[in-house]
Fold each of these.
Amino acid sequence: MEASRNKLVNRNEITDEAASAFADSAQIPDKYVRTDEVADGVVVGEDGTNELPIIDMAKLLDPKMSKMEAAKLGSACRHWGFFQLINHGVNEAVIQHMKDNTAQFFALPLDSKKTVAVRGDGFEGYGHHYTRTSATSGDKLDWAESVILITQPVQDGNMPLWPTNPPTFRQALDLYSVEITNLTRQLLGFMADDLGVEQAALLDAFAGKRQSMAIHHYPPCRHPEKVMGNTPHTDGLGLTLLLHVDDTPGLQIKKGGRWFPVRPVPGAFVVNVGDILHIMTNGAYRSVEHRVVVDAVRGRTTAVIFQDASVEGMVAPLPELVKGGGARYKSVERFQYLKVRFSALAKGSGFLESFKV
């Protein structure tokens, strides 16, 4: 990632103090205490009446069922911005290899993990999430450790920051990245059909664009009411695909002003619309706020792929979706978009409204 962009993002290293706090959370260092943020908003009860939509790829691929399932996919993207994808067809051995290597990496001693630590103004490597500034309490850290890497194009990756321990991590990530790229293309084709645009229009916007990976570990905390795993945010790129390495819940999605907990479905990916896809669809598909809360007993580990997109170097509505009604969002050069995006991320504020016409 370009140096000028790196300066817009601040990622803190995981220190010995942080590792000690993660290991024994009897006392929470002040820089992690976010009690007001954890308590902000109503959390809907987990009674199954407000489950995240489940989309079946096997039905999407079945000529007899595809139209109905594609409509269900479109509805999920319009009303939730999220869905869980089952029967996705991704090689199960590749998934398990990615899960195993992710879990093994986070189980390593801190000194081993710090061999790929984030450096200087860098973006990639091992460290905390982004540092966010609280209006009331200054800079705060999330209760999490993460590795962020650029996976595609291959030449853009910072290979010295790709873990070599576990020894099979790089191979696992390479194989997984290719599988997710293929799955993304399939999903985009069905999204294009639902939106009523040529498949090529949407596929070309994503083709050859940057793909990045983040693996996250949210350690258990004895005082989950005091810390945030990941503060409320929207995803800034095009499409996000999340793999649960374990079955610990924690992801919550904001809908109608309330937080809806996501119960992981075995074998499913959690897929969500990012800000760029929101703009590209002229607001038809929604990028929605979400957060991660921490469990008192169980850690939570995820592997997340973020797929970037742009239209001829611009973040803009697809031309086919602005005919008649006009564009609801401005066309912005991609770097300028990212500059505003990272500034908003550091402040913990949303920014899609600022791009409205």
Amino acid sequence: MSTGELLNIEPQELQFAFELKKQISCSLQLSNKTDEYVAFKVKTTNPKKYCVRPNTGVVLPRSTCDVIVTMQAQKEMPSDMQCKDKFLLQSVVASAGATTKDITPEMFNKESGHNVEECKLKVNYVDPPRPPSPVREGSEEGSSPRASVDNENSNDTEFKAASRAFGERHEPQDNSEAKSLIARLTDEKNSAIQQNNRLQQELDLLRREANASRGGIAFIYVVIVGLIGIILGYLLKKT
């Protein structure tokens, strides 16, 4: 904190969390520790780089005023994160009831005999704050990592128990279906064997009938030949 006879200035060093291509702001708090109206003016060595709001104003007696300093987005990273820019805050006693419209450049001219207080402010670049660690989706606010691990282990145990119960509940049904399928296939096999045996028996019967038919035809043929021979013999004797 910079302390003068008119204003307390906090902080005395402007710190910017530097990031490329991003506007960055910081604030100054001016505290009037007198019973007078105090006019102030903020200057910088690099006016194109910074925007100060308000850059002039009046701090009422025993009151405070906030000044916002914004650094324009930068395209290049500064070497070694060093900055040579500086600010100068001037303050002077103003007339009672003065406002910003009453402030003139002449009020801050020391050569005119005005008692002007000056405070130089340095600029410092700092690393931007790190983003918060990602929180696992679904975790409750305020829960500890140990509680999360225990919860996961509990869920895993419940899942395994449910899986075993599901398997035990469905295992008898699966065995019953398998046994039923085996029994049905066995019946179909036995039926096929019986049908094959019946077909074999019918085939043997047909073969025997066919052999018997060929034997009967041969006997008749012999009888006919014999009769023809007898008739021819008889005719020959007669002649």
